Amino acid sequence: MNIDKDEKIILWTGGWDSTFRILSTLLTQDGPNIRPLYLLDTSRASTINELETIHKIKKQIFKKGKYYSDKLKPMLIIDSSDIPEISEIREAYCKIRQTNWLGSQYVQLAELINHFKLTYPEISIEADVTGLKFLHAFLRSNVTTYNGMKILSSPMQDNISKSYCEIFKYFSFPLIFKSKLDMHQESLSFGISEELQMSWFCHTPRRGQPCGLCGPCQDIVKADMAWRLPFLSRLICKTKRNLNKMKEKLNL
Questions:
Q1: CB 12 within 8 Å of CB 22
Q2: What superkingdom heads the lineage (predicted)?
């Protein structure tokens, strides 16, 4: 993998959080060049939407001038099937899943970073994502600033923390204390709102539109940004939320 040592590696999915990080970092005067990194998983329903979105956003960025096209380097795309499994990371993931939900993409990303010996690439986990409350509490309690990066401190004491650390010790977390609404407000101030609103978020799109059912669609509504969903998707999302509330009341 040919990466200049002075380049900042940012994991880019085409989603709101990672797109905000790409855009806001580009605006930093005299900052490092950016090398986006994308983990390709052909089994994921949103892969085509994500790659198309990234392409559209890059075209929009390049319209701003040569400074930005020079600073944003070509994206590295790594196929998940080409990454060797690492037993320590897999075992840690299994221990976490015994008590908490965690997406398998974090395992693949950790294995990717380990395999290619990358130094703390940025992962855009924001302040509050539905279904990951334990992870966010863990990260917020254990990140420390090192050379301007937010990374995990060590050592960890209890077994579950050690398991999380085994996976997330490879990343830096620039957005862990920033919400989606914070990013929206900052994008208006920075003049990057148009590009940010081009970002993609749905994991299971239907006919090219956000489904309103998946976690990211639910997160958009929770973040008071339901306006990003088409009307029908908003209706589906609202119906699901109401059904979930009814189930909670009935203890179903």
A1: yes
A2: Bacteria
